[in-house]
Amino acid sequence: MSDDVPALELDGLTKTFNETRAADGVSLSVPRGAMLGLVGPNGAGKTTSLSMAVGLLRPDSGTARVLGADVWADPVSAKRLLGVLPDGLALPERLTGGELLDYWGRLRGLERGVVRARAEELLRVLELDGAEADSVLVAEYSTGMRKKIGLATALLHAPKVLVLDEPYEAVDPVSARVLTAILRRFTDGGGTVVVSSHVMALVEQLTDRVAVIARGRVLADGSLADVRGTDATLEDTFVRLVGAREVGKGELAWLSS
Ligand SMILES: Nc1ncnc2c1ncn2[C@@H]1O[C@H](COP(=O)(O)OP(=O)(O)OP(=O)(O)O)[C@@H](O)[C@H]1O
Questions:
Q1: Residue 202: inside a domain, yes or no?
Q2: CB of 15 closer than 6 A to ligand 1?
Q3: Hey, what's the torsion of the CAs at 45, 46, 47, 52, to 10 degrees?
Q4: Residue limits of the ABC transporter domain (predicted)?
Q5: Less packed terminus of the chain by CB within 10 Å, N or C?
Q6: Strands 69-70, 61-66: parallel, antiparallel or unpaired by DSSP?
Q7: 48 lines ligand 1 (CB under 6 A)
Q8: Is residue 157 domain-resident?
Q9: Whole-prediction pTM value?
Q10: Residues 50-78, mean pLDDT to the nearest whole number
Q11: Which residues pair with 21 in a beta bridge?
């Protein structure tokens, strides 16, 4: 494969739900080894775009390619290369974390010994291990623990491209550091990461590229420095591109009466 094939290439992805154009010609090219932050206000179309990018939601039009493999025309190749943490991941609830990874690894066609060794390591690094954890069902996990076990399922088959929808949401600061270390190691090894987040400071600290999306369209895309331009912070850029909403003096007056 030639070196200039992008890790992820979205071209004109469009999706309409009833009257709502959730994604309106979303195009993005993410080079190999990059860490891209996808940011945008609530309802901007981030989850819709990422779901189409990884083969979870069929676009009305447009294409998505992972290292050249078309996600919809050649899903087996594309999904082998992809590790995905979707929004609201539905997990088998009546399994422990270890059982879930075992099941997931077998579904991925990995050998039992490989699955066991990787699962043990992932559970330990993500602090989901221990005697008690061996008997705790995923149904009983906290929101942050669900994120972490979801991340473990995304990593288990050693993908080349990670697409993570809000991976830091509800994760405690210690686990967030672990997650950052994992993602950095992944890109240092040549892997590519796309993360969506609402936390601008985190995106600024973590990523080297950023894409801003609003009303289903990509408003800016490029290196962090280029997108930020002369703005002091990414938050300033975000507000400038997306528009600020002030709370007027007369609004919610009843709260302070
Ligand atoms: N399954 C669906 N049916 C109908 N409308 C939908 C559906 N999924 C998303 N939408 C609409 O599409 C738009 C984009 O939603 P999406 O979830 O992609 O935004 P988002 O940027 O991920 O938002 P958030 O930051 O709040 O998670 C919203 O207006 C949403 O209401």
A1: yes
A2: no
A3: 80
A4: 8-240
A5: C
A6: antiparallel
A7: yes
A8: yes
A9: 0.93
A10: 96
A11: 16
Count of domains for the chain: 1
Say how far apart CA 23 and CA 52 lie, in whole Å. Answer: 10
**Closest ligand 1 atom to the C-alpha of 198?**
25
Place of tokens 């991976």: 167
In a domain, 251, yes or no: no
Q: What amino acid is encoded at 104 in this protein?
A: W
14 touches 24 (CB < 8 A): yes
ipTM greater than 0.85: yes
Give domain status of residue 126, yes or no.
yes
Structural domain of residue 175, as residue ranges? 8-246
Q: What is the mean pLDDT of the chain?
A: 92
The CB density around residue 236, as the number of other CB atoms within 10 Å, is 14
Would you say 7 and 64 are in contact if contact means Cβ atoms under 8 Å apart? no
Which of 65, 44, 23, 31 shows the shortest CA–CA distance to 223?
Answer: 31
* Ligand 1 pocket check for 44: Cβ under 6 Å: yes
